[in-house]
Amino acid sequence: MSILSKTTVMAPPIVTYRGTVYPWHCDHMGHMNVMWYVGKFDEATWQLLASIGLSRARLRDEGIGMAAVEQHIEYKRELFAGDLLTIRSTVQEVREKALIFLHEMINQETDELAARTVLTAVCIDRTTRKAKPLPSDIRDRFVSTSPTTADQ
User: Fold this and answer.
1) Tens-digit pLDDT string for the chain (152 aa)
2) Is 130 in a helix, a strand, or coil?
3) Which domains does the chain have, with CATH numbers?
4) Is residue 30 exposed (0-12), middle (13-18) or buried (19+ Cβ within 10 Å)?
5) How far apart (Å, rounded) are the C-alpha atoms in residues 9 and 143?
6) For 81, which of 9, 95, 103, 145 is 20 to 30 Å away at the CA?
C-alpha cells in the first residue's frame, strides 16, 4: 500500500456554516425536516473543500469535480424555527482518489450536537465522469502534516 493510498488526518475542525432554522424548514412535526440538514451539510462541504484548496474556480479550471458517493447521518437533537446553528467540519481521511470528512451541526444556544454526518467524496474527471487522483498538492498537504496508517 502506498503512503498516498490512505492517510488518517487529525486536523482540528473549522467552522464551515452558520445559519438559522426558518419556519419553512420545519415539517408537520414542528422540527427542521431532514432535507434541510442535508442541504446545510452540503453548503458546509463546499466551504470545507475551498478551505483545503478545492475552490469552485480550481475545480472548473482543472476540469475536476467532487462527487459524494456515501453519506451517513446521525440525528441527535431536534432543531426548531429560530434556532441558530453552526457546522464544524474536518477532513478525517485522505485516499488517492477520495476524501472522508465529518460535519457536526451544533445548536449555538445550547452548544448541543444536533446532527453529525460523515461523507465520502471522490475526485472525478468532469469530462469522462470517472474517478481520478486528487490533485497532488491536496494529498501532499495532508501527507506532510498527518501520520499515515502505517505509522499508527
Assistant:
1) 343 456 776 678 999 999 999 999 999 999 999 999 999 999 999 999 999 999 999 999 999 999 999 999 999 999 999 999 999 999 999 999 999 999 999 999 999 999 999 999 999 999 999 999 999 999 888 775 544 444 44
2) coil
3) 6-144 (3.10.129.10)
4) exposed
5) 8
6) 103
CB atoms within 10 A of CB 10: 11
* Residue 146 cell numbers, joined: 498527518
Say if CB 52 and CB 66 are below 8 A apart.
Answer: no
Q: In angstroms, rounded to a whole number, what is the distance separating the alpha carbons of residues 36 and 15?
A: 18
From the list 12, 5, 7, 48, the residue with the least C-alpha distance to 146 is 7
* pTM for the whole structure: 0.87
CA distance 148 to 108: 34
Q: Taken in order 32, 33, 34, 37, is the CA torsion positive or negative?
A: negative
Q: Which residues contact 60 (CB under 8 A, 6 or more apart)?
A: none
Cell of 83: 434556532
